[in-house]
Design a protein that fits this description.
Helix content is 64%, strand content 0%. With 193 residues, the chain is mainly alpha-helical.
Amino acid sequence: MNSHFFATISRMKYINRWGLMRNTRQENIMEHSLEVAILAHALCEIANQRFGEHLNSERACLLGVYHDVSEIYTGDMPTPVKYFNPEISHAYKLVEQVSNQKLLNQLPQDLQNVYAGILQIGQEDQALRPYVKAADKLSALIKCLEEEKLGNREFASARQSLLKAVKAFDLPAVSVFLEEFLPSYSLTLDELE
């Protein structure tokens, strides 16, 4: 039996983000997911190395890679719509679950449990959840900074909202990232040397 799971996952590159915004450069959910994975790993390592946490940064990275796969079927729902009210948010969560199950059904039986534990954050991953969510918001904040650097003022309001949302996680590792690493995203290549 052929399995379509990985071929379907590869279609993440066709789902663009920020559908309601004028983009200078399009961003798809595959590249966004890679950035979330990198950032989730970094946040966990900062927490481990500087604040004595014992977080599984590799697991956080993996959860970041797969955190938006349901959007293969749903598309990228704009934040103002997704969180317009509790009923819409709840309904969207149900649609995400159906999408994830549809993906899991494409796998051979012996791999379904493995990937079920990746496509949804379980009890064992609750300590990682805020780091992956913070990484998701940080990735969006970085997109806003990059767009503004290119002269696109369309993202100014989103940048302010996202900065507030990132700070609201109240994680010391996030504060470190904002202070030590985020400013570099506004630099040119020559300035990074």
